[in-house]
Design brief:
The complex is a heterodimer of chains A (about 110) and B (about 110). Chain A is built from no helices and 11 strands. Chain A is mostly beta strands and about 110 residues long. In chain B, the strands form 2 sheets. In chain B, strands 2, 4, 5, 9, 10 and 11 form a 6-stranded mixed β-sheet that branches. Classes of the chains: A mainly beta (about 110), B mainly beta (about 110).
């Protein structure tokens, strides 16, 4: 157990639907990062939150949004889902990026 | 991953040694990570180099040359469980940028 908790582990949904992925960071970590990993792609950075505030944004689609709550857990919302959104979504937490990340086990999203 | 290059796939034999190379752009450099990722699982931290030279950790060693924008991960006494992807990555602007990874196949 890495200390970073992601739920659900698997999600199957239809095109056009909306889903919410949840992440609880490791105790003491203020930063939460979301990454998408498609089959033939590397880890693509989506968005970062630090202590409740958005700090950095990557190539995140407008259909996707995220937030970090006062208890530091974070949610990634994916809407108007398309087949191409099928991927592994990882959450990671750290104190600072230079400290390295601790990753959650990921959510495997399948859009059918 | 932008600005990070590593081979897509490599194959090696159980018990052998393999070196996985990584080149990156040097602007704004803040150290270099190596992560291991088994298929369908989360990446796990292997090493972090900030200074030039070789750092050894058991069967795994990581080397960095900042002037050349070059790093390698050296795996010795390969075991079947080392079959995985190895990701080269560096921190930039409060996040970590990952290469696409090198998929390492171990043959018995």
């Amino acid at each position: 157990d890495s200390g970073v908790t992601q739920t659900p582990k698997h999600l199957i949904t239809a095109t056009g639907q909306r889903v919410t992925l949840r992440c609880s960071p490791r105790s003491g970590d203020l930063s939460v990062y979301w990454y998408q990993q498609s089959l033939d792609q590397g880890l693509q950075f989506l968005i970062q939150y630090y202590n409740g505030e958005e700090r950095a944004k990557g190539n995140i689609l407008e259909r996707f949004s995220a937030q970090q709550f006062p208890d530091l857990h974070s949610e990634l919302n994916l809407s108007s889902l398309e087949l191409g959104d099928s991927a592994l979504y990882f959450c990671a937490s750290s104190v600072e990026a230079e400290d390295g990340y601790t990753f959650g086990s990921g959510t495997r999203l399948t859009v059918v | 991953g932008q600005n990070i290059d590593q081979p897509t796939e490599m194959t090696a034999t159980e018990g052998a040694i393999v070196q996985i190379n990584c080149t990156y752009q040097t602007s704004g450099f803040n150290g270099l990570f190596w992560y291991q990722q088994h298929a369908g699982e989360a990446p796990t931290f292997l090493s972090y180099n900030v200074l030039d030279g070789l750092e050894e950790k058991g069967r795994f060693s990581s080397f960095l040359s900042r002037s050349k924008g070059y790093s390698y991960l050296l795996l010795k006494e390969l075991q079947m469980k080392d079959s995985a992807s190895y990701l080269c990555a560096h921190p930039r602007d409060d996040k970590i940028i990952f290469g696409k990874g090198t998929r390492l196949h171990i043959l018995p």
